[in-house]
Amino acid sequence: MLLRNAKIIFNKPVSAELYHMGLLCPDIAAKIQPGQFLMVRIQDRLDPLLRRPFAVHRLYPNDPPGSFEMLYKVVGRGTQLLANMQRGDFLNLLGPLGRGFRLPQDKGFVLMVAGGIGIAPLPYLAETLAASGNKGPFVLWFGGKTSTDLVCVQHFNDLGFAVQLVTEDGSEGKKGLVTGHLEQWLTQQDELPKVMYSCGPYLMQRSVAEMAARLGIPSQLSMEALMGCGVGACLSCSLRCHPPKGVQDPHYANVCQDGPVFDGEEIFWD
Ligand SMILES: Cc1cc2nc3c(=O)[nH]c(=O)nc-3n(C[C@H](O)[C@H](O)[C@H](O)COP(=O)(O)OP(=O)(O)OC[C@H]3O[C@@H](n4cnc5c(N)ncnc54)[C@H](O)[C@@H]3O)c2cc1C
Ligand code: FES
Protein backbone atom coordinates (compact mmCIF):
# COMPACT_ATOMS: atom_id res chain seq x y z
CA MET A 1 0.00 0.00 0.00
CA LEU A 2 1.40 3.38 -1.06
CA LEU A 3 0.70 6.96 -0.06
CA ARG A 4 1.41 9.25 -2.98
CA ASN A 5 0.52 12.64 -4.41
CA ALA A 6 -0.88 12.41 -7.93
CA LYS A 7 -0.98 15.28 -10.40
CA ILE A 8 -4.27 15.89 -12.20
CA ILE A 9 -3.60 15.85 -15.95
CA PHE A 10 -7.23 16.37 -16.99
CA ASN A 11 -10.65 16.65 -15.35
CA LYS A 12 -13.50 16.89 -17.80
CA PRO A 13 -17.24 16.30 -17.75
CA VAL A 14 -18.61 13.36 -19.74
CA SER A 15 -22.25 14.18 -18.92
CA ALA A 16 -24.06 16.40 -16.40
CA GLU A 17 -22.98 14.20 -13.44
CA LEU A 18 -20.06 12.12 -14.73
CA TYR A 19 -16.41 13.18 -15.02
CA HIS A 20 -13.21 11.65 -16.31
CA MET A 21 -10.11 12.56 -14.30
CA GLY A 22 -6.61 11.70 -15.52
CA LEU A 23 -3.93 11.31 -12.83
CA LEU A 24 -0.17 10.93 -13.04
CA CYS A 25 1.25 8.63 -10.38
CA PRO A 26 3.69 6.02 -11.77
CA ASP A 27 4.13 4.09 -8.49
CA ILE A 28 0.42 3.41 -8.13
CA ALA A 29 -0.11 2.84 -11.85
CA ALA A 30 2.60 0.16 -11.75
CA LYS A 31 0.89 -1.76 -8.94
CA ILE A 32 -2.88 -1.42 -9.14
CA GLN A 33 -4.91 -4.36 -10.45
CA PRO A 34 -8.38 -4.19 -12.05
CA GLY A 35 -11.07 -3.90 -9.36
CA GLN A 36 -8.72 -2.63 -6.65
CA PHE A 37 -9.36 0.90 -5.41
CA LEU A 38 -7.73 4.06 -4.04
CA MET A 39 -8.74 6.13 -1.02
CA VAL A 40 -8.59 9.71 -2.27
CA ARG A 41 -7.99 12.63 0.03
CA ILE A 42 -9.83 15.43 -1.64
CA GLN A 43 -8.51 18.45 0.23
CA ASP A 44 -5.78 19.30 2.69
CA ARG A 45 -8.39 20.85 4.95
CA LEU A 46 -10.49 19.00 7.54
CA ASP A 47 -13.62 19.10 5.37
CA PRO A 48 -14.29 16.60 3.99
CA LEU A 49 -12.44 14.72 6.70
CA LEU A 50 -12.55 11.24 5.27
CA ARG A 51 -10.93 9.97 2.12
CA ARG A 52 -13.31 8.70 -0.59
CA PRO A 53 -12.91 5.36 -2.44
CA PHE A 54 -12.55 5.27 -6.24
CA ALA A 55 -11.66 2.58 -8.75
CA VAL A 56 -9.16 2.92 -11.57
CA HIS A 57 -11.21 3.22 -14.75
CA ARG A 58 -8.44 2.92 -17.35
CA LEU A 59 -4.68 2.61 -17.19
CA TYR A 60 -2.45 4.57 -19.58
CA PRO A 61 0.97 2.92 -19.43
CA ASN A 62 2.41 5.16 -22.18
CA ASP A 63 0.48 8.37 -22.53
CA PRO A 64 2.03 9.76 -20.36
CA PRO A 65 3.81 6.80 -18.69
CA GLY A 66 2.41 6.06 -15.23
CA SER A 67 -0.94 7.74 -15.74
CA PHE A 68 -4.46 6.43 -15.25
CA GLU A 69 -8.02 7.63 -15.29
CA MET A 70 -10.93 7.64 -12.85
CA LEU A 71 -14.59 7.94 -13.83
CA TYR A 72 -16.64 9.54 -11.09
CA LYS A 73 -20.21 10.60 -10.49
CA VAL A 74 -20.97 13.77 -8.55
CA VAL A 75 -23.23 12.63 -5.70
CA GLY A 76 -22.19 14.80 -2.72
CA ARG A 77 -19.67 17.18 -1.23
CA GLY A 78 -16.48 15.24 -1.96
CA THR A 79 -17.23 14.49 -5.58
CA GLN A 80 -18.41 18.08 -6.16
CA LEU A 81 -15.03 19.29 -4.88
CA LEU A 82 -13.33 16.81 -7.22
CA ALA A 83 -15.33 18.21 -10.15
CA ASN A 84 -14.01 21.71 -9.35
CA MET A 85 -10.35 20.66 -9.42
CA GLN A 86 -8.07 21.76 -12.25
CA ARG A 87 -5.29 20.30 -14.35
CA GLY A 88 -2.04 20.72 -12.36
CA ASP A 89 -3.74 20.31 -8.94
CA PHE A 90 -2.66 17.39 -6.75
CA LEU A 91 -4.65 14.65 -4.98
CA ASN A 92 -3.29 12.46 -2.22
CA LEU A 93 -3.91 8.75 -2.90
CA LEU A 94 -3.74 5.74 -0.59
CA GLY A 95 -3.57 2.40 -2.36
CA PRO A 96 -3.80 0.10 -4.19
CA LEU A 97 -6.35 -1.36 -1.77
CA GLY A 98 -8.52 -4.46 -1.59
CA ARG A 99 -8.99 -7.61 -3.60
CA GLY A 100 -9.62 -7.03 -7.31
CA PHE A 101 -11.05 -9.11 -10.13
CA ARG A 102 -9.44 -12.43 -11.01
CA LEU A 103 -9.11 -13.39 -14.69
CA PRO A 104 -10.84 -16.64 -15.68
CA GLN A 105 -8.58 -19.73 -15.70
CA ASP A 106 -10.10 -20.92 -18.98
CA LYS A 107 -10.10 -18.61 -21.95
CA GLY A 108 -13.40 -18.03 -23.76
CA PHE A 109 -16.76 -16.35 -23.26
CA VAL A 110 -16.72 -13.57 -20.63
CA LEU A 111 -19.78 -11.55 -19.60
CA MET A 112 -19.69 -8.20 -17.81
CA VAL A 113 -22.72 -6.53 -16.26
CA ALA A 114 -22.74 -2.87 -15.23
CA GLY A 115 -25.37 -0.63 -13.68
CA GLY A 116 -24.86 3.14 -13.82
CA ILE A 117 -21.55 4.29 -12.31
CA GLY A 118 -20.82 0.57 -11.78
CA ILE A 119 -19.19 0.80 -15.20
CA ALA A 120 -16.22 2.58 -13.55
CA PRO A 121 -13.86 -0.37 -12.85
CA LEU A 122 -14.79 -2.46 -15.92
CA PRO A 123 -12.78 -0.84 -18.78
CA TYR A 124 -9.50 -1.59 -16.97
CA LEU A 125 -10.67 -5.18 -16.44
CA ALA A 126 -11.70 -5.39 -20.12
CA GLU A 127 -8.30 -4.07 -21.25
CA THR A 128 -6.49 -6.58 -19.02
CA LEU A 129 -8.64 -9.41 -20.28
CA ALA A 130 -8.06 -8.51 -23.93
CA ALA A 131 -4.30 -8.23 -23.28
CA SER A 132 -4.24 -11.67 -21.62
CA GLY A 133 -4.64 -13.43 -24.97
CA ASN A 134 -8.27 -14.34 -24.38
CA LYS A 135 -10.08 -14.00 -27.70
CA GLY A 136 -13.56 -13.99 -26.14
CA PRO A 137 -16.35 -13.72 -27.05
CA PHE A 138 -16.78 -10.74 -24.72
CA VAL A 139 -20.17 -9.24 -23.95
CA LEU A 140 -21.12 -6.24 -21.81
CA TRP A 141 -24.67 -5.68 -20.58
CA PHE A 142 -24.88 -2.07 -19.44
CA GLY A 143 -27.92 -0.48 -17.84
CA GLY A 144 -28.68 3.05 -16.69
CA LYS A 145 -31.62 5.19 -15.77
CA THR A 146 -31.30 7.15 -19.03
CA SER A 147 -29.07 7.34 -22.12
CA THR A 148 -26.58 9.84 -20.60
CA ASP A 149 -25.58 7.19 -18.03
CA LEU A 150 -24.27 4.93 -20.81
CA VAL A 151 -20.68 6.13 -21.22
CA CYS A 152 -17.51 4.42 -22.57
CA VAL A 153 -19.47 2.16 -24.93
CA GLN A 154 -17.15 2.82 -27.89
CA HIS A 155 -14.15 1.79 -25.80
CA PHE A 156 -15.72 -1.61 -25.13
CA ASN A 157 -16.58 -1.94 -28.83
CA ASP A 158 -12.94 -1.18 -29.69
CA LEU A 159 -11.83 -3.99 -27.35
CA GLY A 160 -14.06 -6.44 -29.22
CA PHE A 161 -17.03 -6.44 -26.86
CA ALA A 162 -20.60 -6.85 -28.06
CA VAL A 163 -22.52 -4.30 -25.97
CA GLN A 164 -26.18 -4.62 -25.00
CA LEU A 165 -27.69 -1.39 -23.65
CA VAL A 166 -30.70 -1.05 -21.37
CA THR A 167 -32.30 2.11 -19.95
CA GLU A 168 -35.09 2.40 -17.42
CA ASP A 169 -36.78 5.16 -19.45
CA GLY A 170 -36.23 3.45 -22.82
CA SER A 171 -34.16 6.41 -24.16
CA GLU A 172 -31.47 4.00 -25.45
CA GLY A 173 -31.37 0.24 -26.01
CA LYS A 174 -33.91 -2.04 -24.41
CA LYS A 175 -36.36 -0.58 -21.87
CA GLY A 176 -36.28 -1.78 -18.26
CA LEU A 177 -33.62 -3.22 -15.98
CA VAL A 178 -30.51 -5.07 -17.18
CA THR A 179 -31.39 -8.03 -15.02
CA GLY A 180 -34.91 -8.07 -16.49
CA HIS A 181 -33.50 -8.94 -19.94
CA LEU A 182 -30.25 -10.74 -19.19
CA GLU A 183 -31.40 -14.17 -18.05
CA GLN A 184 -33.62 -14.74 -21.06
CA TRP A 185 -30.75 -13.73 -23.34
CA LEU A 186 -28.34 -16.03 -21.49
CA THR A 187 -30.62 -19.04 -21.81
CA GLN A 188 -30.74 -18.44 -25.59
CA GLN A 189 -26.93 -18.61 -25.99
CA ASP A 190 -25.23 -21.75 -27.38
CA GLU A 191 -22.65 -21.64 -24.58
CA LEU A 192 -22.58 -20.04 -21.16
CA PRO A 193 -19.89 -17.58 -20.02
CA LYS A 194 -16.86 -18.87 -18.11
CA VAL A 195 -17.42 -16.02 -15.66
CA MET A 196 -19.76 -13.10 -15.02
CA TYR A 197 -18.22 -9.87 -13.68
CA SER A 198 -20.56 -7.30 -12.25
CA CYS A 199 -20.58 -3.86 -10.64
CA GLY A 200 -23.63 -1.77 -9.83
CA PRO A 201 -26.36 -1.17 -7.27
CA TYR A 202 -26.93 -3.76 -4.54
CA LEU A 203 -30.21 -5.11 -5.95
CA MET A 204 -28.70 -5.54 -9.40
CA GLN A 205 -25.72 -7.35 -7.89
CA ARG A 206 -28.04 -9.64 -5.98
CA SER A 207 -30.00 -10.51 -9.15
CA VAL A 208 -26.77 -11.14 -11.05
CA ALA A 209 -25.41 -13.42 -8.30
CA GLU A 210 -28.67 -15.38 -8.04
CA MET A 211 -28.93 -15.70 -11.83
CA ALA A 212 -25.33 -16.88 -12.09
CA ALA A 213 -25.93 -19.45 -9.34
CA ARG A 214 -29.09 -20.77 -11.08
CA LEU A 215 -27.16 -21.19 -14.34
CA GLY A 216 -23.99 -22.55 -12.71
CA ILE A 217 -21.78 -19.65 -13.85
CA PRO A 218 -19.05 -18.34 -11.49
CA SER A 219 -19.65 -14.68 -10.66
CA GLN A 220 -17.36 -11.94 -9.32
CA LEU A 221 -19.06 -8.83 -8.00
CA SER A 222 -17.46 -5.52 -7.04
CA MET A 223 -19.49 -4.36 -4.03
CA GLU A 224 -20.07 -0.79 -2.86
CA ALA A 225 -20.00 0.20 0.79
CA LEU A 226 -19.61 3.34 2.82
CA MET A 227 -15.92 3.42 3.71
CA GLY A 228 -14.41 5.33 6.58
CA CYS A 229 -10.80 4.17 6.39
CA GLY A 230 -10.32 1.69 3.49
CA VAL A 231 -7.86 -0.42 5.48
CA GLY A 232 -9.92 -2.58 7.85
CA ALA A 233 -9.82 -0.34 10.92
CA CYS A 234 -13.27 1.26 11.23
CA LEU A 235 -15.64 -1.61 10.27
CA SER A 236 -17.96 0.81 8.45
CA CYS A 237 -17.90 -1.38 5.33
CA SER A 238 -19.16 -4.69 6.79
CA LEU A 239 -20.89 -7.04 4.40
CA ARG A 240 -22.70 -10.14 5.62
CA CYS A 241 -21.23 -13.25 4.03
CA HIS A 242 -21.82 -16.96 4.46
CA PRO A 243 -19.75 -18.31 7.36
CA PRO A 244 -16.94 -20.77 6.73
CA LYS A 245 -17.94 -24.47 6.90
CA GLY A 246 -18.75 -25.60 10.45
CA VAL A 247 -19.32 -22.05 11.76
CA GLN A 248 -22.88 -21.16 12.79
CA ASP A 249 -22.60 -17.46 13.71
CA PRO A 250 -23.18 -14.75 11.10
CA HIS A 251 -19.96 -13.84 9.30
CA TYR A 252 -19.11 -10.28 8.27
CA ALA A 253 -16.42 -9.37 5.76
CA ASN A 254 -14.84 -5.93 5.31
CA VAL A 255 -15.51 -4.76 1.78
CA CYS A 256 -12.29 -2.72 1.88
CA GLN A 257 -9.98 -5.67 2.66
CA ASP A 258 -11.86 -8.87 1.80
CA GLY A 259 -13.36 -7.18 -1.28
CA PRO A 260 -14.46 -5.04 -2.97
CA VAL A 261 -14.66 -8.02 -5.35
CA PHE A 262 -16.46 -11.05 -3.93
CA ASP A 263 -17.57 -14.32 -5.47
CA GLY A 264 -21.35 -14.26 -5.78
CA GLU A 265 -21.79 -17.28 -3.54
CA GLU A 266 -19.78 -15.71 -0.70
CA ILE A 267 -22.39 -13.04 -0.03
CA PHE A 268 -25.39 -13.54 2.26
CA TRP A 269 -28.08 -11.55 0.42
CA ASP A 270 -30.59 -9.98 2.77
C1 LIG B 1 -14.50 0.23 -3.64
C2 LIG B 1 -15.27 1.42 -4.14
C3 LIG B 1 -14.96 1.97 -5.37
C4 LIG B 1 -15.68 3.07 -5.83
N1 LIG B 1 -15.36 3.55 -7.06
C5 LIG B 1 -16.06 4.59 -7.55
C6 LIG B 1 -15.73 5.11 -8.83
O1 LIG B 1 -14.82 4.63 -9.53
N2 LIG B 1 -16.47 6.16 -9.28
C7 LIG B 1 -17.48 6.74 -8.52
O2 LIG B 1 -18.12 7.70 -8.97
N3 LIG B 1 -17.78 6.27 -7.31
C8 LIG B 1 -17.09 5.23 -6.79
N4 LIG B 1 -17.40 4.75 -5.55
C9 LIG B 1 -18.42 5.49 -4.76
C10 LIG B 1 -17.78 6.77 -4.23
O3 LIG B 1 -16.77 6.44 -3.31
C11 LIG B 1 -18.83 7.66 -3.55
O4 LIG B 1 -19.79 8.06 -4.50
C12 LIG B 1 -18.15 8.88 -2.95
O5 LIG B 1 -17.38 8.51 -1.85
C13 LIG B 1 -19.19 9.91 -2.53
O6 LIG B 1 -18.51 10.97 -1.92
P1 LIG B 1 -19.23 12.39 -1.74
O7 LIG B 1 -18.48 13.12 -0.68
O8 LIG B 1 -19.44 13.04 -3.04
O9 LIG B 1 -20.65 11.98 -1.23
P2 LIG B 1 -21.24 12.00 0.29
O10 LIG B 1 -21.56 13.47 0.53
O11 LIG B 1 -20.28 11.32 1.17
O12 LIG B 1 -22.51 11.19 0.06
C14 LIG B 1 -23.54 11.56 -0.90
C15 LIG B 1 -24.48 10.39 -1.10
O13 LIG B 1 -23.78 9.29 -1.70
C16 LIG B 1 -23.89 8.11 -0.88
N5 LIG B 1 -22.60 7.40 -0.87
C17 LIG B 1 -21.44 7.88 -0.42
N6 LIG B 1 -20.47 6.95 -0.54
C18 LIG B 1 -21.05 5.85 -1.06
C19 LIG B 1 -20.59 4.56 -1.40
N7 LIG B 1 -19.34 4.17 -1.20
N8 LIG B 1 -21.48 3.70 -1.93
C20 LIG B 1 -22.76 4.04 -2.12
N9 LIG B 1 -23.26 5.27 -1.81
C21 LIG B 1 -22.42 6.14 -1.29
C22 LIG B 1 -24.22 8.64 0.51
O14 LIG B 1 -24.96 7.69 1.26
C23 LIG B 1 -25.07 9.85 0.21
O15 LIG B 1 -26.42 9.51 -0.05
C24 LIG B 1 -16.72 3.65 -5.05
C25 LIG B 1 -17.03 3.10 -3.82
C26 LIG B 1 -16.33 2.00 -3.36
C27 LIG B 1 -16.67 1.42 -2.04
S1 FES C 1 -13.58 1.10 5.43
FE1 FES C 1 -12.87 0.98 7.49
S2 FES C 1 -12.94 -1.17 7.82
FE2 FES C 1 -13.49 -1.01 5.73
How many separate structural domains? 3
Average per-residue pLDDT, rounded, comes to 95
Report how far the terminal alpha carbons are from each other.
Answer: 32 Å
Largest sheet: 7 strands, antiparallel
CATH level-3 fold name of the largest domain: Rossmann fold
Instruction: Briefly note the structural class of the backbone.
Output: alpha/beta
* Count of DSSP H/I helices: 7
Low-confidence regions: none
Structure commentary:
The chain is an alpha/beta fold and 270 residues long. The chain has helices at residues 26-31, 77-83, 122-131, 153-158, 178-187, 202-215, 255-258; strands at residues 2-13, 18-24, 37-41, 52-55, 58-60, 67-73, 90-97, 110-115, 138-144, 161-167, 174-175, 195-199, 219-222, 238-241, 251-254, 261-263. The model has no long low-confidence stretch (mean pLDDT 95). The protein binds flavin-adenine dinucleotide and FE2/S2 (inorganic) cluster.
In short:
This protein has 270 residues and is an alpha/beta fold. The protein contains seven helices and 16 strands.
List keywords for this structure.
single chain, 270 residues, alpha/beta, Elongation Factor Tu (Ef-tu), domain 3, Rossmann fold, Dihydroorotate dehydrogenase B (pyrk subunit), domain 3, 3 domains, seven-stranded antiparallel beta sheet, seven-stranded mixed beta sheet, 21% helix, globular, binds flavin-adenine dinucleotide, binds FE2/S2 (inorganic) cluster
